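Q: I'm writing up a methods section and want to include an example of the input and output format. Could you take the sequence below and give the corresponding predicted structure tokens, formatted cleanly so I can copy it straight into the document?
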Amino acid sequence: MHASFFLLALALCASTFAQVSTNTNRAPELSLTASASYVLDDKHQLEPGDHVSFQILEDRDPPKSLIVADSKELDVPYIGRVAVKDKTCMQLAKELKALLEKEYYFRATVIVGLDSVNKVRGKVYIWGQVRTQGQIDILFNEELTAGKAILRAGGFADFANKKKVSSHSWFQADPIRPSKRSR
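A: Here is the clean output for your methods example:
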């Protein structure tokens, strides 16, 4: 009984295997439903530090992980640096498709997916009579006041003069000599 069941299963596998094409030179076709099932993000504008995945379906390679640079550019394979300022993944995919079809591909199906969003908008540095001196990240959708920054630094140190708190901001107009503005 068990031997006949095993032979029947083996025969079914052999008939299924015989129906499969043995032509290995022909590349598998890309179905339109596979590329149409991807929904690209059209809401989040890319910011420095965002992680995106980039894939050209015709290459049949796995997606490549890319990070948006501080200059709001993305280093894309084949093309090089592309500005992503004020662009969503959908807009970027359309632009990359046009650039790739201009020189490298007859038809390119480009997918740009948003993997993770950078949660840090900027940095402030706090020093002086606080418990923990150093860098504090400013998160998106957060208004960081001087009081919140002091609290994030662990509060005032034991001998801090709480009436003599000052704020200074530096902006980098000239990379050689940063300017200083006091408030």
